[in-house]
Recover the amino acids of this structure.
């Protein structure tokens, strides 16, 4: 459908956003349902975030997705926060409802749906989460709710991991320990856990870098999940595969968090097969 004066606009706010597959995924979904909507990606420098958020309303957008590094910092800029997003402390989807910006978190259900699809039950498992940002919050609260028996958080900025650990311990009744993201701390945690989830942007196409994880500490019982989906085989997943671990890429979480956002914006069920095909063709 050609873009016209009536086309409804949604988009992505993040920094950077060039790596994102959300635009092709959502645009294919709009097309499949014959919706006169368009999804655009906006690379917003931190100093422009408040202006960009005001612009969602000012320009009459229907909503946005929010990604690194704004999933937490956007909260005070919104009019209302859905209770789940409030509990998690992170928003990845904003819907404009009667002129108000309402924040939601679809990362949590997207992550949970992807785990179920993979047949991974967190109940009774011990998990290590790398990162302590917005995506880590969604993952951590999901694992808490689904019965993980203990959580380890490792983050470059140690105090963020400490703060998140405190919040999680208050919300649940399992031990949550915080560590700096360093080789020595990961080496001591790995023998304790069976599920390892990278929620940092390390390994992303546009960013690169490597996690301080020693290959020989990985064992076949470890399930390694990288929320990064571009590239589909990150260095972390390559490393884990080479050690015989089961690996999960961020593709299905991207799909399911996107599908729920699509429904929040349009009120329509997302055409999952179409969205999946787009991701398959890109990855
Ligand atoms: P969001 O809220 O969208 O998840 P974020 O809060 O910036 O974005 O979170 C990104 C995560 O990736 C954080 O855990 C961040 O670590 P810091 O808290 O130290 O910033 C992590 N991260 C980003 N770049 C990193 C890098 N080069 N090395 C290690 N961790 C990194």
């Amino acid at each position: 459908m050609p873009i016209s004066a009536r086309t409804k606009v949604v988009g992505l706010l993040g920094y950077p956003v060039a790596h994102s597959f959300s635009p092709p995924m959502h645009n294919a979904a709009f097309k499949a349902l014959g919706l006169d909507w368009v999804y655009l990606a906006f690379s917003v420098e931190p100093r422009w975030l408040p202006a960009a958020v005001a612009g969602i309303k000012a320009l009459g957008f229907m909503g946005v997705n929010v990604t690194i590094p704004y999933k937490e910092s956007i909260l005070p800029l919104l009019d209302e926060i859905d209770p789940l997003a409030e509990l998690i402390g992170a928003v990845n989807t904003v819907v404009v409802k009667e002129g108000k910006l309402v924040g939601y978190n679809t990362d949590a259900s997207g992550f949970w749906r992807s785990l179920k699809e993979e047949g991974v039950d967190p109940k009774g498992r011990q998990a290590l989460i790398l990162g302590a940002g917005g995506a880590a919050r969604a993952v951590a609260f999901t694992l808490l709710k689904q019965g993980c028996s203990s959580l380890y958080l490792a983050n470059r900025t140690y105090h963020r991991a400490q703060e998140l650990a405190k919040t999680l311990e208050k919300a649940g009744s399992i031990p949550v320990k915080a560590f700096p993201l360093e080789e020595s701390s990961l080496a001591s945690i790995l023998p304790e856990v069976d599920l390892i989830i990278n929620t940092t942007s390390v390994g992303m196409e546009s960013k690169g870098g490597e996690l301080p994880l020693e290959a020989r500490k990985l064992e076949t019982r470890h399930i390694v999940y990288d929320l990064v989906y571009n590239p589909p085989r990150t260095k972390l997943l390559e490393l884990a595969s080479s050690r015989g671990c089961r690996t999960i890429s961020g593709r299905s979480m991207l799909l399911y968090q996107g599908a729920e956002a699509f429904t929040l914006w349009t009120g329509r069920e997302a055409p999952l097969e179409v969205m999946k095909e787009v991701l398959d063709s890109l990855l």
In short: The chain has two domains: 8-104+253-281, 108-248. Residues 108-248 form a domain with the Rossmann fold fold (CATH 3.40.50.720). The radius of gyration is 19 Å.
